[in-house]
Amino acid sequence: MTPGERADVVVDFAAFPPGTAVTMDNTLGAGSTAQVMLFRVTGRASDDSHIPAHLSHIEPLRRSQAIRTRDWQFRRAPTGDHPGWLVNDQPFDPARIDADVTLGDVEIWRFTSDLHHPVHAHLNPFQVLSRRGATPGPHDLGWKDTVDITPSETVEVLVRFTDYPGRYLLHCHNLEHEDMAMMATFHTR
Ligand SMILES: [Cu+2]
């Protein structure tokens, strides 16, 4: 999981006797961010719930529905001209529109990274189409609004613009990166 990503999970504590402490670790964390949450198993409980075979119905978007492809490169500034983090070699400028899109359209957005960037689009969900040119794995299935781009990776997503007309942000969800201008604006009309 990267910053901004969400998942619905079922955790089964049945194997742990009362008195057990279970820790959720952040394997990319250090210091105070290495441990996320502590569960204390305090007693036995009966549970007759079950996981349904289908959690929800998802309409899969297809590559053939896309009317265009846009490239979004997430990179660190190569020089001191724009200290910080850039999208398509530009720091965020609230007065600039980086992409004009049409409500109802489907586009392929191709995200490329230098380092690790979790990319988030506001209020217009997408589906992962490919990762490093290959079919995405289970982690990428379903509607998403944040996708993990690992170092030197290209990920294609199919985005459909379904929210109100207006200006929306596309940004890296690493707090330090978005704070240092790694954002772009797309305008739906
Ligand atoms: Cu980033």
Provide an overview of this structure.
There is one protein chain. The chain is mainly beta and 189 residues long. It has 1 helix and 12 strands. The mean pLDDT is 93. Helix content is 3%, strand content 36%. The protein is globular, with a radius of gyration of 20 Å. It folds into 2 domains: 30 residues, no CATH class; 123 residues, Cupredoxins -  blue copper proteins (Immunoglobulin-like), CATH 2.60.40. The strands form 3 sheets. It has a 5-stranded mixed beta sheet with strand order 4-3-6-10-8, with no helix packed on it. The protein has a 5-stranded mixed beta sheet with strand order 5-12-11-7-9. Strands 1-2 form a two-stranded antiparallel sheet. Bound molecules: copper (II) ion (CU). Copper (II) ion binds next to loops.
Judging from the principal axes of the Cα atoms, what is the shape?
A: globular
Task: Give me the number of helical elements.
Answer: 1
Identify the strand order in the major beta sheet: 4-3-6-10-8
Number of DSSP-assigned strands: 12
CATH architecture title of the largest domain: Sandwich
Strand portion:
35-45%
Task: Calculate the terminal CA-CA distance, rounded to whole Å.
Answer: 32 Å
Low-confidence stretches: none
Classification by helices and strands: mainly beta
Largest sheet: 5 strands, mixed
Overall residue-averaged pLDDT value: 93
Provide the list of bound ligands, each named once.
copper (II) ion
Work out the radius of gyration: 20 Å
The CATH first-level class of the largest domain comes to: Mainly Beta
- List the secondary-structure elements in sequence, H or E: EEEEEEEEEEEHE
Domain count: the total is 2
Percent range of helical residues: under 10%
Might you state the CATH topology name of the largest domain?
Immunoglobulin-like
Tell me the name of the CATH homologous superfamily of the largest domain: Cupredoxins -  blue copper proteins
